[in-house]
């Protein structure tokens, strides 16, 4: 019978002897008082784009929902289950979170799939196809930008998608109301997994710019 | 207009001067060759239970989907979008991942909600209510265990839910086929956010036990 | 004709040359003045769960009654002989003991027997069956928890039984009166015979938690 | 609200850093394989007469039932609950124990109560009175031995009681059958809590003698 992966046990041991030992009091406190994260991050499942790593955040800081291509679907109270909407509702209404960050990244496989007109279903259920269809109108437009290279279309779509998700966030009444009252701020960012660069979205123009940060 | 959170910029700076600098070659490589994570982790959004932290994993290792209460819904190819199912499909069929870990944790707010018969919708959309209803039959049974304390029911439900999600994984044909062929292994774990202890699921009995790990 | 077991004689020799020699004055004193133990412990006969060992207590400290599954029956002044009730009466009324500890443990054979619907009498007298029937109502409820594994039901029942015994203690008028006056304290604990961990009962919630104890 | 006794937590800490650490492998093994104690000891609750201490026995060795005055009642399959009989049945039939030791001791409060014609009930339930009445016929006889001092009657009764309990053991069919087949041995001992001396019962005569043991 298969055993628990050695890599994970070894990593857990490192965590316990290192980080956990150093932050033991904090873990106990968080267990007792409950979590009060400052930011909800909507990020991608991609193994190269973990928010806790990129933002060097510790336990208790980030409430993180991760799905393929870090998409926020629009508000659809239709009685079906919507996991990302549920996470948003919990963060905003129960945890009273003050910041939402939609974080995309370069070389996103989900975005690449949205731009591939020949993409075939990965399985009969075609879950990725259905999920990515949230981007369909935008993706179809970008596919027509034949003067841009494949990579330029990819990067453009990644950023368009972030802006799209931010618009979708505002279709949720609780989000809109709290944002208008100044109790909630929405941010966007895009992480270049190759160079490690973080590009932050300017809220007026929607442009992605590099912030003034001392990194060397 | 509001600015990008200082805490995140400061954390990003620490990341760049520290980890990224140390792993620069790895990030570049991963960007070029693409990701080959060894494990798909289905984890909770909870700010105290990030898999990369707990398993001390670096870029490229873990493909992580995070939702409230780390639930894996059952296979439902009904044409609606299912974000967790999409992530699973992508991991198994596109990334050819070899391990799936369903990781739950103590003091889970989503599990607590499932056990609260008086829980009111957090918003008119009641997305959490719908999402958590995936646990409804089991939660109703556990609610009747009046001889157990509230905490005991909570822990029991957290573990029952992990076993339930693992069963749901096996309703996906691609998962079942690959597991039977020995090409995919499914694991369960439960993280005690207070003590830092990791409990690993025994595949025969479904019990959660502590592995032999030297942590001091 | 059979001889006294060698193992016991050898152990006695070790006791005499070691502990007794070191505590000789104490043994003599206790013989002269009589015993004034600080705690009555209701423990199991199990060879792996001796209170003196677990609490490193010496002569004169613990008044210990041990029966199968560390049960305290309810108050029944019916003229029959009740050995555990007699020990309780002696400890509280004659020795004026100030603390009562009900101590259960993991892997308890008596508790396992209570959860086994197919358990057959061990002898025509079926003394275990009768004794364990003190747990019958609770055991029947727990047996129905089919979503829990066998081990989870076992641990749950061990703890429910401790809480049940503590309730039974309070059906004894002398216990209730003294506790209400602040002259008697009742405690619960559960010992994990595998890991050596001691879990102490929280008096408000009835939960079993690990106390802050430096053990390494 | 009262806290768990400090003395017990401190003792537990000593146990964990000392004995448990040294015997960790043994505790784990015993948890996995189950207990196989070599001796059932019927001992007194008295805080000065713990079998594990006197025989320097570790986890897994002794299955211990302790009641006031280490009495073994006679076989009474009447449908009531009998805790000492249940422990005996479990030890002999389930654990297949090979040795039974009835261990009495000097200055036994329960024996003293049996010899006190003026003893009043300690509480309306008079559980001690009922329990000790198992010794009534013998105690009444000894009370008449006016030529012996109080202490001599006490010691005499303690030893008579051990022989009486051994006779009662033999009223249990399972015990008698196994003893006759040579699969079970019955022993008696009496511990002088003042001098630390162990007196062992000669099986032919019933006398208590000191065995040849090097104790200095």
Automatic annotation (TrEMBL), chains A, B, C, D:
Q: Name one GO molecular function term.
A: carbonate dehydratase activity
Q: What is its EC number?
A: 4.2.1.1
Describe cofactor binding as the record notes it: Binds 1 zinc ion per subunit.
- Which InterPro entries is this protein grouped with? Beta_CA_cladeB (IPR045066), Carbonic_anhydrase (IPR001765), Carbonic_anhydrase_CS (IPR015892), Carbonic_anhydrase_sf (IPR036874)
Quote the record's binding site residues for Zn(2+): 44, 46, 105, 108
Its cofactor is:
Zn(2+)
Q: Which GO terms describe its biological process?
A: carbon utilization
The source's domain of life comes to Bacteria
Swiss-Prot/TrEMBL catalytic activity:
hydrogencarbonate + H(+) = CO2 + H2O
Q: Which UniProt keywords apply?
A: Lyase, Metal-binding, Zinc
Broad enzyme group: lyase
- Gene3D superfamilies, alphabetically? Carbonic anhydrase
One Pfam family matching this protein: Pro_CA
Keyword Nucleotide-binding assigned to the entry: answer is no
Q: What does this protein do?
A: Reversible hydration of carbon dioxide.
Task: State the family named in the UniProt similarity comment for this chain.
Answer: Belongs to the beta-class carbonic anhydrase family.
Q: What's the name of the protein?
A: Carbonic anhydrase
């Amino acid at each position: 019978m298969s055993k628990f992966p050695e890599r994970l046990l070894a990593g857990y041991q490192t965590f316990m002897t290192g980080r956990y030992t150093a932050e033991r009091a904090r873990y106990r406190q968080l267990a007792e008082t409950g979590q009060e994260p400052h930011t909800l991050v909507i990020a991608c499942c991609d193994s190269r784009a973990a928010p806790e790593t990129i933002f060097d955040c510790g336990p208790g800081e980030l409430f993180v929902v991760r799905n393929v291509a870090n998409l926020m679907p629009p508000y659809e109270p239709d009685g079906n289950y919507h996991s990302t909407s549920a996470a948003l509702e919990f963060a905003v209404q129960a945890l009273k979170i003050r910041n939402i960050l939609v974080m995309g990244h370069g070389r996103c496989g989900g975005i690449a799939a949205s731009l591939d007109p020949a993409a075939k279903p990965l399985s009969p259920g075609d879950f990725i196809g259905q999920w990515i269809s949230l981007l369909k109108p935008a993706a179809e437009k970008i596919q027509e930008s034949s003067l841009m290279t494949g990579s330029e279309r990819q990067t453009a779509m990644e950023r368009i998608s972030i802006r799209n998700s931010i618009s979708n966030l505002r279709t949720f009444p609780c989000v809109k109301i709290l944002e208008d009252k100044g109790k909630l701020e929405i941010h966007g960012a895009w992480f270049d997994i190759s160079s490690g660069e973080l590009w932050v979205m300017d809220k007026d123009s929607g442009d992605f710019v590099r912030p003034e940060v001392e990194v060397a």
